[in-house]
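ok so I'm stuck.
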Amino acid sequence: MGFRIYTKTGDQGETALFGGRRVPKSHLRVDAYGTVDELNSFIGLLCDALENKRVRDLLQQIQHRLFSIGAHLASDPEQPLPSPDLRPEDIQVLETAMDHMDEGLPPLRNFILPGGHPTVSLCHVCRTVCRRAERLAVALHQHEPVDEQVLQYLNRLSDYFFMLSRQLAFDAGVAEIAWHPRPNT
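replied:
not stuck anymore, here's the structure
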């Protein structure tokens, strides 16, 4: 008999952190690592929708970093925390990719609305879920330790998804949807 995915230990609304401590499933730490997992799932969907191997390879690299971040966030802070497996060069990779995209894109003159193409919209979903993960990690950090590199990485990653959405729109030949405020009447 193999491993069973269900344990029935969470039926009363609690879950165990790595290290054994049980917390409510509504705990901020659970919300933070659950949102990182949600982001990772959306990135997988985005990756599956893209044909550009270079971008897909970077997205898969990002997924590995996010899985490590999730493990870090899912750990009991009263125990020795596992490293989130982030290095300064991981942030530099995102910054370099954004700089490269920015060089070939028209200047940004308006706020951009999500839409115009399915992959562009999916990038914006990744961006907004990443921002939520970042907000939750920051909120958690106000109460329990979160590695500073996790906060930096999530911040830079949401910027990356914004730039990637612009690049994908450009590559697909679709116009970005500029936000126009309602005229005063």
